[in-house]
Amino acid sequence: MRWWTQLRNTFSKPLPTGSVASTALLGMMKPEAHDVPALAREMRNDYQVRLAELVLAANVRAAPTRVIVNGAAGMGDARATQLAARLHQLWREALPAMLGALGDGRVAFEKIWGFDPALQLTTVRKLEPLPAEQTKLKLNAGGAFAGIELRTTERSAAWITSSGEPAVRSGWRDEGSVRLLPAEKTWWLAVDATPLEPHGRSRFLGAPYTVWKEHSEAIRLRKLFLKRFVVRGGVAHVPPTSTNLQGEVVDNFEATAETIDQRVSGGTVLFPNTRDSRGNYEYNYTEPPQTLDPAPIDNVIDGLDAELLRAFGIPEKTVIEGQAVGSYALASQQMLILYAVVEDLLTQFAQSFQRYVIDKVVAANYESATAPKLMLHVPSLGDSPTANLVELTKALLTATPTPTTELVDMKQLLQAAGVPVKHQGVSPGQ
Predict the structure, then answer these.
(1) Radius of gyration over alpha carbons of the chain, in Å?
(2) Does residue 325 form part of some domain?
(3) How far apart are CA 38 and CA 43, in angstroms?
(4) Number of folded domains in the chain?
(5) By residue range, what is the domain housing residue 237?
(6) Which of 80, 135, 158, 302 has its CA 20 to 30 A from that of 232?
(7) Which helix (H) or strand (E) element contains residue 214?
(8) Three-state secondary structure of 106-133
(9) 266 with 370, same domain?
(10) What's the sign of the alpha-carbon dihedral 266, 272, 273, 275?
């Protein structure tokens, strides 16, 4: 028997299916920290965290995705082509909700199935996102997706440690009403899922959480500084007590301090003109010699702004206009870093949508032998035509000397790259 015949016979035998490692690690899975959605909402109140999330979301949504029909079974099948268009529309409609997984680590969807009379096919009409606090991933004995538990009572909270890591303790706070939504009716989109964390992991944890705490503290200190110290109080000399017209003894220290604290900019403080035995005023107030500058605190906050973007994998020069970026090669490298982070998220979204939505719709309408192959195509952002055009435009604009319009139609190139140009065009050398 020749070696290739023996090899063919070896692999013709049935092989075990499923993940052995996932089953073995099932008892070691880390429980999901139930307060992650609440923490994500709190972190989104920070303007820089929100900016980082918007940058990633904007790049994910701008990716030129499409659902394509592959395979001989789908060629010439008009219904398959129309089904691909419907599924891509479903993808675009659900994408804003998918982006919530950046903070929550996952998004639970209910698949609303229905019959499409135009296509004469059964398809998913809508993907309905479910409240993160009320949902829990359900796995079967083999570690495979078995549906989503939906609970109507509040879940336990405050299980994030000071380091930003999920704590060990978890679970429902009370029994309440639980309903299991079956796997065929649901989709669990998890970000950065692992065999030990199949439920997903928030991109807000780790480095972003650590920097966010410092950022929040710096902003708190600036508020305190502006309120208490930026304009220091003056020095007042007053008698300890005095008697008013009603014969009541007044604490002059307390009354004077309250009057000065209530004074607004441009206000006036009036004191009696009484003098002591030496002829000096018994009451006087000296204004502070100078105000304090909050610039050092502002500089710290500016630095933490950049650190927060870096913690999310976003080079700050791709977002914040500041000093010169440097060489063209350095600018391109920073864009590649941003593209890599966005592509990682987009690929995880697309693979999960392919497995739990597109493949399920195809299986519900076709026999496996005659089923068309529908695939959600995600191009590489760095190699997309638009990205290449933008890079080319930047190279031309930074070239020395700048190419003239006799060599390059700069107006058309800039417009194609998305740069607004006045109608009169671009003069040579500009």
Answers:
(1) 32
(2) no
(3) 9
(4) 3
(5) 233-286
(6) 302
(7) helix 207-228
(8) EEEEEEEEEEECCCCEEEEEEEEECCHH
(9) no
(10) negative
Residue 363 neighbours by CB under 8 Å, 6+ apart: 371
Structure tokens at 9: 């016979």
Token readout for 204 is 């807000």
Note the pLDDT tens digit of each residue in 158-198: 444 445 554 443 444 444 588 999 999 999 999 999 988 99
Report the 10 Å Cβ neighbour count for 151: 19
Chain length of the chain: 430
Residue 119: inside a domain: yes
Bridge partners, 128 (sequence order): 110
CB 165 within 8 A of CB 35: no
Q: What is the pLDDT of residues 7-48, one digit of tens each?
A: 455 445 555 555 666 666 666 778 888 789 999 999 999 999
The reported pLDDT for the residue numbered 156 is 46
Tokens of 372: 């068309």
Residue 32 DSSP class:
P
Rounded to whole angstroms, how far apart are CA atoms 193 and 101?
A: 11
- Which tokens belong to 259? 């009057």
